[in-house]
Amino acid sequence: MAPVPISPLKVGHIDDVQELRKAKSKIPERFVRDITERPTLATCSSSSSGIPIIDFSKLSKGDFDEVLSELVQLSTACEEWGFFQVINHGIDLSLLEKIEKVTKEFFMLPLAEKQKYPMAPGTVQGYGQAFVFSEDQKLDWCNMFALGVEPQVIRNPKLWPTKPAKFGETVEAYSREVRKLCQSLLKYLAMTLGLKGDVLNEMFGEAVQAIRTNYYPPCSRPDLVLGLSPHSDGSALTVLQERRGSSIGLQILKDDKWVSVQPLPNALVINIGDTLEVLSNGKYKSVEHRAVTHKQKDRLSIVTFYAPSYEIELGPIPELVDENNPCKYRRYNHGEYSKHYVTNKLQGKKTLEFAKIQTSNYN
């Protein structure tokens, strides 16, 4: 049974990390991680050179050999990494700059202004800390602001801020372009799985899209805290944009080591979510990832989550199940999984157990 959400975390000077930073306070115990969770050098790898890079222009406009080569790289990225960077994605760079600008302006508003858009219990929209369900749960060194974008029915107009002036307009324009990119990527991902290019987009129905912006202020003791707890995403695709000049914060779990990801200039970092792991019957992996903090530099990220309609029933695609690849996940309603995801704290890939068929069931 899912835990009952507590009242939304009351964001004030005590627990808002920007306010803590301004006050130069000692790190409150609520943020200090157990020793086993702390980001130590022993558990981290500094190299991100292996993160696959996909040239979207070659997929969409290349000749036969270029398309084939990129599709092979895309398939390998999804199987072995669960993450890849997309260059030449076609989204106007001025729009990337605009979304970074209004997002930073929002986080720099006085706390009282941001508190006008509080995150309600059991939801992930608004300003505050998501996935907090108990008074003794450790908090992330991060301020979040999230909005449902599509379909219209998931929007909460009261949470769309009036300041900065062009925030809503910019989010709309940015989200439209990211939606097009996700639809294109799903087409190519279907091809890499040996399926018709339109099968995933048609299966998704009216896809759900949300945006979450994260601000990680510098932290005087980055060795004690986490910017964001380890987790995999419940979406099908996640699109990450980082403000240029941000500290390196994203880390992915690869071969039991945390690997830091350095985003390329103007690139977008894409990762596979739980939904695509289920649809591909485990061929493509939703990978555990987290965020760490920096002593001097802040970090700003803009994250888009793209997933099927809540009304869709999901399970492994039949063409990807056979004697050599038995069915690993049960069928379920995507809305039920989404509710399960947002009413549980972030704990690695534990949420995906909701859909897994236990090995004993094969006997």
From TrEMBL:
It holds the Pfam family 2OG-FeII_Oxy. SUPFAM superfamilies: Clavaminate synthase-like (SSF51197). Keywords: Iron, Metal-binding, Oxidoreductase, Vitamin C. PROSITE patterns: FE2OG_OXY. GO terms for molecular function: L-ascorbic acid binding; metal ion binding; oxidoreductase activity. Gene3D superfamilies: B-lactam Antibiotic, Isopenicillin N Synthase, Chain (2.60.120.330). Residues 206-308 form the Fe2OG dioxygenase domain. Belongs to the iron/ascorbate-dependent oxidoreductase family. This is Fe2OG dioxygenase domain-containing protein. It comes from Ficus carica (Common fig).
